[in-house]
């Protein structure tokens, strides 16, 4: 692939669906994070996005989503991310060491998970918010934790359950669903700080 030529992915492919999900993390107020990080190992492709507060990762067998030459290892800017296409352009950046903030990549820093639940998080649509609201309420009750609604909305999937693992509110919660994984911090500490101010 020509590094200067954009990567265009049209709807109807699994790669398109995964890129759309990864793009939900992008924070338009922080340009540096509008980046997709792509790694190729000997037998896997790993796609990562983060806004500094949550991290989305897709990890699967190399060649499953696309030919490795179609999306080489490197960093890419989301030029377009809509219902019809995702357009990526090569971007020269020193991407942060994302493994350092995950239990799998930095096990010495993180305690082992104590709790696990499986939960379906239905789509949050204009016509029907009730099922999503019920799931969001269940998540709050089962984890005894407050999450940013937008972060959980990005997890919505009518067809599959998420496995959610955590140690305590102090550490990131791991959401796993097939080849998708997300590390999400709770809003608990921020809320408690606000309460103390009152």
Q: Please estimate the helix content.
A: 10-25%
Radius of gyration: 17 Å
Oligomer: single chain
Structural class by sheet pairing and helices: alpha+beta
H and E order = EHEEEEEEHHEEEH
Strand order of the largest sheet: 1-6-5-2-3-4-10-9-8-7
Task: For the structure shown, list the relevant keywords.
198 residues, alpha+beta, ten-stranded antiparallel sheet, 10 strands
What does the model show?
This protein is of the alpha+beta class and 198 residues long. It has two domains: 7-94, no CATH class; 115-197, no CATH class. It contains four helices and ten strands; from the N terminus they run βαββββββααβββα. It has helices at residues 14-23, 130-143, 149-153, 188-197, and strands at 7-10, 35-40, 44-50, 54-61, 74-81, 85-90, 115-120, 161-166, 173-177, 180-184. It has a ten-stranded antiparallel sheet with strand order 1-6-5-2-3-4-10-9-8-7, with helices on one face. A hairpin with a 6-residue loop joins strand 8 and strand 9 (173-177). The longest helix is centred in the last third of the chain and has 14 residues, at 130-143. The chain is globular.
List the helices and strands and how they pair.
Blueprint: E1 7-10, H1 14-23, E2 35-40, E3 44-50, E4 54-61, E5 74-81, E6 85-90, E7 115-120, H2 130-143, H3 149-153, E8 161-166, E9 173-177, E10 180-184, H4 188-197
Entry summary:
With 198 residues, the chain is an alpha+beta fold. The protein is built from 4 helices and 10 strands; from the N terminus they run βαββββββααβββα. The chain has 2 domains: 88 residues, no CATH class; 83 residues, no CATH class.
